[in-house]
Structure prediction request, 149 residues.
Amino acid sequence: MKGNAVRIISRQLTALLILTLAAATVFAQGNQVDLLIQNARVVDGTGSPWFRSDVAINDGRIVDIGVDLNFDASQTIDAAGRVVAPGFIDVHTHVESSASQEGLQGLPRADNYVLDGVTTIVTGTAAVPKSISGPGTGVFQDWVSMLRP
Prediction:
């Protein structure tokens, strides 16, 4: 029983410390942020249901999430109920170059992914790509040759 009480108090103190640090960070920044997204449906990537919220961003980092945030922002976006989410990961893509397709070498900004919210792609999951070449690919090619019988 005594050990359990110590764990509970320890958890409470840890939570209090985290909240204090978060409040200090927001206080130190004042009420100025680079971007304030209001009236959004936030999907946070944890598997929890979406929730209505505002999102404050400063120096490329989320500094606060909450309802009716009070910040002076360089730019404000009314999401009007649209979804705000972290970047999506596409774990099965076919973006390798081939004789008939340039792949990402022809689209280095990958606008087709970014405009859909994809920020990370995993490639080469369907088969071992044979047409990868260029600077820095020697280690990969060595690894591929070890996979072949």
